[in-house]
Amino acid sequence: MAQLDLQAKLAILADAAKYDASCASSGTSKRTSKGGKGVGSTEGMGICHAYAPDGRCISLLKILLTNSCIFDCHFCINRKSSNVRRARFTAQEVVQLTLNFYKRNYIEGLFLSSGIIKSSNYTMEQLVEVARSLREDHDFRGYIHLKTIPDADPELVHLAGLYADRISINVELPTREGLTRLAPEKDGDRIEGAMAGMKSSIEDGVDARRKYRSAPKFAPAGQSTQMIVGADAAKDGDIVTRASQLYGRFRLRRVYYSAFSPIPDASAVLPLNRPPLMREHRLYQSDWLMRFYGFTPTEVVSATDDGMLPLDIDPKLAWALKFRESFPVDINRAPREQLLRVPGLGTKAVKRILSSRRWRKLRLDDVARLTVSVAKVRPFIVTVDWRPTLLTDRQDLRSLIKPTASQLELFATA
Questions:
Q1: Rounded to 10 degrees, what is the CA torsion of 304, 310, 316, 317?
Q2: Which ranges carry the Elp3/MiaA/NifB-like radical SAM core domain (predicted)?
Q3: SS3 359
Q4: What is the per-residue pLDDT across 338-352, written as a single tens digit (0 to 9) for each?
């Protein structure tokens, strides 16, 4: 490991970091280096690409400090017993890489995770040292996202929050049973204890900033977590319920889902095949239903078939087909909460409809101009000139409005 040059280390540790999905930069406070002071920024337009809620692409250097690990989690490619090439950065190597990449306009921030070496505390000290050096020694004002070690001393985890914009503490698997079976060295209670401590520190930091403007910011972009999908027997309904509990108890900014991927020299307790990537996508859609569309976890779970979200249609359409008594919805009269439940209407489309109907009654053509696909919306709405009559109750409605599967073309024109 000591004989590897910096480029070889970067190739190994950047590739190893691709399995970590907890990577986004939304919600951070704005900092710039205008005026010739400091290095970095969290504001500019953009090797990892994350996306802010407004659609901006944020480029992050996404690497591991090391892919060596003293733990032997069955699902992890970097587990102790895995036959992979190992590498390790020093804290100062990560600092210099981040600064050099930023000055070349390749990145706007750093996402740093790590396997556990020597001990949880030792690893956490190295992660904190990277963030400390960037902030204090180099006045780096770009985005920093640190993946913390739940077993580390709470004081070290607290220090991470003083330097990083966002903190991630992974629950790893949706159920306690799955964690015990596939990651026996990890403790679910300690993970949740670390998340509770981080939540408390974030709230204390917000209160302090309200009272004293000079108080230091603490993890201004909040905390997030990640769950691996498909490595254990948890169904989509279990995952949705668990995510809702995490949002409620720890006020997370995001729960990320990562579809399990078969790894070299896999343990016999793991599935032979990875779950469909569409399953991961449907879970993200269900997450948005709860966060932005007013759906309760129970309602999302009710859209499943035997606990699994359908793969051929999105969760909102699945819910609408199961609860047809809630439709059709009058576009010109329904409140925002009802409009958000109409398949095919997103938050922006609903906002446009509410604004437009203040001036005149909307017709079906008007709705078509305000939405992406009026064909998906028609069976569930009423306008001045349109009423679906028996369309909403048709037995074959699902087949009529579900998207047609097609092979994408690599060089197709927009």
A1: -120
A2: 59-286
A3: coil
A4: 999 999 999 999 999
Amino acid (1-letter code) at residue 354: L
What pTM value is reported for the model? 0.85
CA 73 to chain centre: 22
Enumerate residues 6+ apart whose C-beta is below 8 A from 315.
282, 285, 286, 289, 300, 303, 309
The backbone torsions φ and ψ at residue 224, rounded to the nearest 5 degrees and listed phi first, read -140, 175
Written as six digits, the tokens of 329 are 């919805």
The predicted-structure confidence for 118-139, as pLDDT tens digits, reads as follows 999 999 999 999 999 999 999 9
The DSSP secondary structure of 209-263, one letter per residue, reads: HHH-TTSPP--TT-EEEEEEESSSS--HHHHHHHHHHHHHHH--SEEEEEE----
Q: Tokens at residue 137, please?
A: 């020694």
- Please report where in the chains the tokens 């679906």 appear, as a residue: 388
The Cα–Cα gap between 166 and 147 comes to 9
Burial of 300 (0-12, 13-18, 19+ CB in 10 A): buried
Cα–Cα–Cα angle for 206, 25, 236, rounded to 5 degrees: 100
Domain ranges of the chain: 6-225, 324-401
319/342 Cα distance (integer angstroms): 10
| Encoded tokens for 148 | 């913390």
